[in-house]
């Protein structure tokens, strides 16, 4: 059995103006998971973000939404991981993914950051790329035939026809998180990837 997940980090930008934007897909999922785990977020200044706490098998399980803006996400993740003495392998990061279409999702451990500023900063803060990621597909302006620049695209809400596919992915992610909290990543990966549209 691998180390179970003990810190779940949703990535996004704080503030009402960003709430519905594609870049906040990680926040959306973190909020839903807090509901599933019957806990709620409270701002904690020393951890630079909103933190929700619960217990699993007698151990702390933490959820985090950094309040630092995307490109400084590592500040909050690093502070929390150090305080609770968590290894990178016990951290799960939820984030939007340009390389996957709406309706697609991937679970992976380690790897690069593909230019995602939040991931880049977390990797630097943890000193390792070996944390887990749930990559929530939002599509890319090119693959969706949009003329928008990427930076503009991620800071806009999904189009009406894309939102149901993204919502369905969030539900699928919620269903596999219990397996990850128990350290069964093979089961979580199998379940999550089984329903990916081609």
Automatic annotation (TrEMBL):
Residues with site note (Discriminates between blocked and unblocked aminoacyl-tRNA): 13
Binding site for tRNA: 18, 69, 71, 117
GO biological process, one term: rescue of stalled ribosome
Broad EC category: hydrolase
GO molecular function: peptidyl-tRNA hydrolase activity; tRNA binding
Compartments reported by the entry: Cytoplasm
One Gene Ontology term, aspect cellular component: cytoplasm
Assembly notes: Monomer.
Listed NCBIfam families: pth (TIGR00447)
Record function comment: Catalyzes the release of premature peptidyl moieties from peptidyl-tRNA molecules trapped in stalled 50S ribosomal subunits, and thus maintains levels of free tRNAs and 50S ribosomes.
Protein name (Swiss-Prot/TrEMBL): Peptidyl-tRNA hydrolase
Source organism of the structure: Bordetella genomosp. 13
Origin organism lineage: Bacteria, Pseudomonadati, Pseudomonadota, Betaproteobacteria, Burkholderiales
């Amino acid at each position: 059995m691998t180390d179970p997940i003990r810190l779940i980090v949703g990535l996004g930008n704080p503030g009402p103006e960003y709430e519905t934007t594609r870049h906040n897909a990680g926040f959306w999922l973190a909020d839903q998971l807090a509901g599933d785990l019957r806990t709620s977020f409270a701002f904690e200044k020393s951890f630079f973000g909103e933190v929700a706490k619960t217990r699993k098998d007698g151990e702390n399980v933490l959820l985090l939404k950094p309040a630092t803006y995307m490109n400084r996400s590592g500040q909050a993740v690093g502070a929390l991981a150090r305080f609770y003495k968590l290894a990178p392998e016990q951290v799960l990061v939820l984030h939007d993914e340009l390389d996957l279409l709406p309706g697609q999702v991937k679970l992976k451990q380690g790897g690069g950051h593909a230019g995602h500023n939040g991931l880049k900063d977390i990797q630097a803060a943890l000193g390792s790329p070996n944390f887990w990621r749930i990559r929530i597909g939002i599509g890319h302006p090119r693959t969706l035939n949009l003329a928008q620049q990427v930076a503009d695209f991620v800071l806009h809400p999904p189009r009406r026809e894309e939102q149901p596919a993204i919502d369905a992915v969030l539900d699928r992610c919620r269903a596999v998180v219990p397996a990850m909290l128990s350290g069964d990543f093979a089961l979580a990966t199998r379940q999550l990837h089984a329903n990916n549209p081609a």
